[in-house]
Specification:
87 residues, alpha+beta, 2 strands, 13% strand
């Protein structure tokens, strides 16, 4: 099985940008699933991350992919800053 070559200069950041630009249309089709985005398209989807990643990497080899979870809620992260003692 031959591996698909990554498009020149294609990056994880471009996959994320595609997801953000197309979030609303992706929600109508893939809500509650992970989507594998590569070269400006959704290649596959699954409710579970690991099986999806395994299928895609088996097919393409290790190429830059963005695999977000499609949800109506915006993802958020809580980042704790270090506590600084009195000087």
């Amino acid at each position: 099985m031959s591996k698909v070559q990554s498009p020149p200069q294609y990056t994880f950041k471009q996959g994320k940008a595609y997801f953000e630009r197309n979030r609303n249309s992706l929600m109508s089709q893939y809500l509650g699933k992970y989507v594998a985005i590569w070269d400006e398209e959704v290649l596959d989807s699954d409710k579970d991350f690991s099986p999806l990643a395994e299928r895609i990497y088996r097919k393409l080899g290790y190429v830059p992919l963005y695999i977000p979870f499609v949800s109506a809620e915006q993802p958020s992260a809580m980042i704790h800053s270090p506590k600084i003692g009195k000087v």
